[in-house]
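Fold this sequence, please.
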Amino acid sequence: MKKILRQFWESMTRPRKWKFTNSLRNTFQFNNQILLNTSLIKCFIVLSFSIYKTLGILYTTALIGQNVMKYSTLDLLLCPACQGELTLDAAYPHGVLETGKLTCFACHKIIPVKHGIPRFIKEDELTGLNKPFAHMYDWFSWIYSAFSKIGFLFLGTTDSKARQEVLSRLEPNGGKVLEVSIGPGVNLPFLLSSPQVGEVYGLDISIGQLNRCNSLIRRKGWSVDLFLANGEELPFKDDSFDAVFHIGGINFFTNQQKAIDEMIRVAKPGSKLIICDENESGAQWYEKFLPGFKSAFNGQREEIIAPVNLVPPTMIELKLENIWNGFMYCIEFRKPFTTT
């Protein structure tokens, strides 16, 4: 961690002159009269890193161990390896679970539950780009929220407007909502303030992100169940959720097709699904300003193309458009009541 922080500080303080190409300026719709002050961005990032790390340590230290999973959530879960039924080996006073283990009846896989979070994966089991990105987000989780807020300002929007632009497309109708790659929970305030949203469930591949999300949940007193799991092998039964969405990450999943198929599988017939991530221009911006992003590819990053062609032809109301002033793409579709 010290080595990463030292490299981060050196990269932030090294004299450079960043320039956006004309195409990037047009894509992000920057006003030509506004000068992009890179030094100011760097100062914000470094300052935010220090503040969020300190607060994160305090909150996590004080609140970790208080998170619990509702016992009723077990009815939604299955073994992601073999789709077998899971049994619980723990006491569950007051209908909630803090610590214990889940065991698959079919393949006998054991899933530990710590601080109310079932841990369906281990870091050494990850393959492809999932492994370096899980590691990157573990430490980046300290500044994720601040980085996002600052980034939205330079994109000509705000955190609130940007997230509502996506979340307003969902149609949960008072039912269960699943966020794949929930991160530190930046979408939760908007989800839980909507009368259309019933219960919220969040999954992420990074335990660092889940720890930050856990702190937020406990501080706010929300009831949100979290899961450490792979988006390509969702640990949920078929037709479990009234809305499923994903914002950021699928571009670099090891298997995008499996991830999309899994989100469709766990969504109820008739439900809306949303999949968003940065487009090529957005990725180029990340390469300049997001520490660790460019190095994760070892110089072999492929050009980003929205994976709309991976959505099965049986899905209906398929749409693809740019959002956040051209920074991201958004794929929107509905799971039909019948797929035949």
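The CA atoms of residues 183 and 209 lie 5 Å apart. Residues 69-114 form one domain.
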